[in-house]
Amino acid sequence: MWATIRNLGVFQGLWFLLVLGGDAYAIFALGWFLFHYVSYSEPQEKRLLPIYAVLGILMDGYLKAFGVYQFSNDAWPIPLWLLALWLIFPTTLSHGLRWCWSGKLWILIASAFGAALTYVGGATLGDLEFPFGEPVTVMTLTACWALYFGLIRVMTLQRS
């Protein structure tokens, strides 16, 4: 239980730091990723973490390219702080958030909706805008996150 609380607590703290502070705090995310990778990751997770991060970066890069959301700086494919978030988010997938994608289909969809809502929170706090409005963006993000969690489920079960 403490491992789950630590895992989610560190991620959430870094989420706030990156969303509020931006690129300057990416080094802390890198530090957590490396610490997690060396200290907590099992061999299968070590193989999958980079894949999960790249999938997320591609997802957000495409969503930015299609204008689903915008940032004030035009970093490619996405800003450094969001790249850093995608470096650390996968560290939660086999730990604190495993229940999001490993259960029934409705849990996966509810988790995807929750993930989409984190973008709304990020937009409220930081450098993110929704040109198509929140409802369309949340629906789009929910679909993308459901696909993301579904892919994770398939890749993890195939490698087990």
Written description of the protein model:
It is globular, with a radius of gyration of 15 Å. Helix 1 runs antiparallel to helix 4, helix 3 (about 45-65) packs antiparallel against helix 4 (about 80-90) and helix 6 crosses helix 7. It has one domain (about 1-160). The longest helix is centred in the C-terminal third of the chain and has 26 residues, at about 135-160. The protein contains 7 helices and no strands. The protein is mainly alpha-helical and about 160 residues long. About 30% of the residues are buried.
User: What is the ordering of alpha helices and beta strands?
Assistant: HHHHHHH
In which range does the helix fraction lie?
over 70%
Distance between the terminal alpha carbons, to the nearest Å?
A: 23 Å
Largest sheet: none
In DSSP terms (H or I, runs of 4 or more residues), the helix count works out at 7
Strand tally = 0
Mean pLDDT metric: 91
Tally of discrete structural domains: 1
Looking at the chains present, what oligomeric state does this protein adopt? single chain
Q: Which outline best applies?
A: globular
Strand content: under 5%
Supply the helix-strand structural class.
Answer: mainly alpha
Low-confidence stretches: none
Question: What's the alpha carbon Rg, rounded to whole Å?
Answer: 15 Å
List the helices and strands and how they pair.
Layout: H1 2-21, H2 26-39, H3 43-65, H4 80-88, H5 98-102, H6 105-125, H7 134-159
Helix pairs in contact: 1-4, 2-4, 3-4, 3-7, 6-7
